[in-house]
Amino acid sequence: MASISVEPCTFALFGALGDLALRKLFPALYQLDRADLLHADTRVLALAREAGSVDEHLASIEAHLQEFVPAGQIEAPVLQRFLARLSYLHVDFLKAEDYQALAERVGSDSQLIAYFATPAAVYGGICENLDKAGLSARTRVVLEKPIGHDLESSRRVNDAVAQFFPENRVYRIDHYLGKETVQNLIALRFANSLFETQWNQNSISHVEITVAEKVGIEGRWGYFDKAGQLRDMIQNHLLQLLCLIAMDPPSDLSADSIRDEKVKVLKALAPIKGEGLSTQVVRGQYIAGYSEGKPVPGYLEEDNANAQSDTETFVALRADIRNWRWAGVPFYLRTGKRMPQKLSQIVIHFKETPHYIFAPEQRLQIGNKLIIRLQPDEGISLRVMTKEQGLDKGMQLRSGPLQLNFSDTWRSARIPDAYERLLLEVMRGNQNLFVRKDEIEYAWKWCDQLIAGWKQSGDAPKPYAAGSWGPMSSIALITRDGRSWYGDI
Ligand code: BG6
């Protein structure tokens, strides 16, 4: 039996035949079952409103499991056990009468987890119907992103949910918070005095956060075009990473202590406006180019594209945090589709020593760097300066890594997908890894002013070739400050 105790529940997945549920959520539940982390009495209830028979839908869920769980990890007895937990119910999410059947399936005393993998516009309606069916008092609701597309619309969604569910039963997903290395960032910062004493403007010169994707829009043009890279990635994933790096140490690991500290960072972000809109931010849109040596179309030539769109597929920006810890330490954020590789990493650049005593030509490499790699090859590496070995080398310096590669170090352990951890934490009733209402709202507030500035300027996004690191001006953004993006080739 697993060492973490998890209460039994009915896990109801609204939007069970959608892409997210089929690719990520069912495989994550299967993996939890495989790791013995689901209580024997836990049931999984797939809810959708698509036409088709129950048998067809269950067969489709099973087929997707076979496809999305890595080969070798489908174990026949586990699969059988998992499928025995699974049932399907046809529900029109906005029809109150359809929830009676749901209430019957849940039974009178089971804890219900209601995961909304549906458009946010129906979250309020689902909550109301859960309440009418007498289920709300024993339900935790899980909300997928995007929650709104600006501050006002996100408030509408949050307020609609709050009419029926108090904040301590609302779990807002940002799947980056479930990634192994993001968890490790907290351990690294707060379990090692070595880092924490250096974690400020006295020792750190700047921070880089890159989340690059090799893929383009992959059949999601309609959704993506209304959002763009700022709303899709910066408002949530990159700002969450920034908060975890920049926040003060919380007084304990409780959800609210951590979230209080993150909110302080969001409130301290300097708005980007006026001249900053042209010097501190770059919007880009990919044009045709190459990915893995093969020609690929530009954003405006993708399937179902509107050739007039000025939605950005790339953003680079310099964020400044107005507080004592980070005064004068820029955070450079960069994220885009159709980049040369899939890479998510944070690089903390430490300042040079106060007085330099080595040969002048070696000075450029000086400065320790802490590299936190989220994907691929999860791990943490600290680049330190040492002396080249050998009698004939004199005091020749070299920058080398002190390295902790998670898959090499813990060979036996599979690195779990972010959703596995997040689903488990909901079942355990632990809100640490979920985003509180005010965090979402402060993040929107900061992004909204940026979007308003873009709108006012009317500037089109800068083109960049698919397979490149973004528009040239994103390089100028950082070189203007006498720096460069770490490791770009
Ligand atoms: C999602 C975005 O939140 O994150 C997608 O909507 C993006 O556009 C995805 O592709 C990236 O997640 P990951 O875990 O693959 O880095």
Key terms for this structure?
Rossmann fold; Dihydrodipicolinate Reductase, domain 2; 2 domains; nine-stranded mixed beta sheet; 17 strands; binds 6-O-phosphono-beta-D-glucopyranose; Glucose-6-phosphate 1-dehydrogenase; EC 1.1.1.49; glucose-6-phosphate dehydrogenase activity; G6P_DH_NAD-bd
How would you concisely characterize the structure shown here?
With 489 residues, this protein is α/β, with parallel strands linked by helices.
Q: What best-fitting shape do the alpha-carbon axes yield? A: globular
**Strand element count:** 17
Instruction: Describe the largest sheet.
Output: 9 strands, mixed
Q: What's the CATH first level of the largest domain?
A: Alpha Beta
The small molecules bound here are:
6-O-phosphono-beta-D-glucopyranose
Which class do the helix and strand fractions yield?
alpha/beta
- Poorly predicted runs: none
With strands numbered from the N-terminus, the spatial order across the biggest sheet is: 16-15-14-13-7-12-11-8-17
The CATH topology assignment of the largest domain is Dihydrodipicolinate Reductase, domain 2
The CATH homologous superfamily name of the largest domain equals Dihydrodipicolinate Reductase, domain 2
CATH architecture of the largest domain: 2-Layer Sandwich
Q: Mean pLDDT across all residues, rounded?
A: 92
Helical segment tally? Answer: 16
Measured by DSSP, the beta-strand proportion falls in: 15-25%
Percentage of residues in helical conformation: 25-40%
